[in-house]
Design goal:
Layout: E1 6-10, H1 14-25, E2 29-34, H2 37-46, E3 48-49, E4 53-57, E5 62-66
Parallel strand pairs: 1-2, 2-5
Antiparallel strand pairs: 3-4
Length: 73
């Protein structure tokens, strides 16, 4: 059964991408917010987090977005 639930994960490391893949496997739309450009490019293009989890393919339902780096004084 498919769900229209959207889920956001903040962090594109090994834990965040593994959790996102598990959630996506259960037919949910998942957005990962990461600060590393290489992580975003790798997962969006290759469906693999080459920086933190090389060799593990992810669900096609995952989408990565960049977190803007903002300094607050």
């Amino acid at each position: 059964m498919k769900s229209n639930t959207n889920v956001s994960i903040f962090g594109g490391g090994s834990w965040g991408t593994s959790l996102a893949n598990l959630i996506a496997h259960n037919s949910r739309q998942v957005k990962i917010w990461a600060k590393e450009t290489s992580v975003c490019d790798s997962i969006n293009k290759l469906k693999e987090n080459k920086l933190f989890l090389p060799g593990h393919k992810f669900q096609t339902i995952l989408k990565l977005y960049m977190i803007l780096k903002i300094k607050i004084f």
